[in-house]
Design goal:
alpha+beta; Jelly Rolls; Arc Repressor Mutant, subunit A; 2 domains; 7-stranded antiparallel beta sheet; 5-stranded antiparallel beta sheet; 11 helices; 38% helix; Homeodomain-like_sf
Length: 331
């Protein structure tokens, strides 16, 4: 561990998830490195009066970079965030003025590679910035008809408002995923890390997908599609699968998949996959050794809200995860 200027701690870890920096700070200058890709330090002016306090973390999940942090006083920020990756910014608290538009929590700020962002954070704030290479970003959106043609991709900087009905849930989910990756990321398997990466991309591109309402073509009959998807999940074993992976593999949109599963098995594909993951956790706990912990097993299978996980587990199996584990250990 190396201590850098302003008390930044540089962390080194292996695996697909790397925690590159994590620190608490009391000087606004640390925000010059608020985004990990910035080719030169951002120009920062502290506008709000009083002592500054904040947190900063730089993560990488495979090829996707994530910078997240919080600070307690308003600032003016300007600079290029990345020269080769798209920057997808989401405010997790408070609001900001970015060039000529106002952003509120849950909104998506889209910044093209090599473009300067000029912004004012009115008060303290909490943010998450996702950095994605163009090929990976547009491959992720490939199953969303029209998503690659959204005007945001043809402008240097723009803002897309989130669906207000889901804003709070999206912000909460993003915050929890980032906290889990910061704490447990280096221990995750490649499969679990990919699942969480897809979750992040799903959250930060939600406003893009919301702008292109569509009814996907029914490429496969519902029963055949569900059987093939089910076989794909069986072949994947206990690896957590994100819905975007299914859409990409079978070249169908989310709505097509949703209609097919509701028609054939009576529940949505997300609910079906969640129950399969709960079943995988049950199997691991039932056969786990004395070193097995519920928290580690749950996170490895894509569950980060442990209270909700335990409730869903109990509703499905009639007992808590701890009861399953005790039964296994008594054997």
């Amino acid at each position: 561990m190396t201590t850098l200027e302003f008390g930044v701690e540089l962390l080194s870890s292996g695996g697909i998830v790397r925690v590159q920096q994590q620190l608490e700070f009391a000087d606004f200058e640390v925000l010059r490195d608020a985004v990990q890709d910035a080719p030169t330090p951002m120009d920062i002016v502290q506008l709000g009066q009083g002592e500054m306090a904040g947190t900063l973390a730089h993560l990488s999940v495979g090829s996707v970079g994530i910078s997240t942090g919080s600070f307690t006083r308003g600032v003016r920020q300007r600079g290029v965030l990345s020269t080769n990756r798209w920057t997808l910014g989401m405010l997790l608290g408070s609001s900001a003025l970015l060039q000529h538009f106002e952003a509120t929590p849950g909104d998506l700020i889209v910044i093209a590679p090599d473009q300067e962002l000029y912004s004012r954070f009115i008060n303290g704030n909490h943010y998450a910035t996702t950095l994605v290479a163009p090929d990976e970003l547009f491959a992720f959106l490939a199953t969303q008809p029209g998503a690659q043609d959204v005007a945001a991709w043809h402008q240097p900087t723009t803002m897309l408002a989130s669906d207000r009905a889901t804003t709070a849930a999206n912000v909460k989910q993003m915050s929890m995923i980032l906290a889990a990756l910061t704490e447990h990321g280096p221990k995750l398997s490649v499969d679990a890390a990919d699942f969480f990466k897809r979750n992040i991309l799903e959250l930060v591109t939600a406003p893009v997908r919301d702008t292109v309402r569509y009814r996907g073509a029914r490429v496969l009959a519902a029963a055949k599609l569900v059987r093939e998807v089910d076989r794909y999940m069986i072949d994947a074993g206990s690896r957590p699968i994100h819905i975007s992976e299914l859409c990409a593999h079978f070249s169908v949109g989310r709505r097509t998949l949703h209609r097919a599963f509701n028609e054939v098995v009576g529940i949505s594909p997300i609910a079906f996959m969640r129950r399969k993951r709960l079943g995988d956790v049950h199997s691991v706990l039932l056969t786990g050794g004395p070193d097995a912990t519920i928290k580690d097993v749950a996170i490895e299978h894509g569950f980060i809200e442990l209270g909700r996980f335990a409730g869903a587990y109990r509703r499905l199996f009639g007992e808590l995860p701890s009861q399953t584990l005790r039964r296994a250990q008594h054997r």
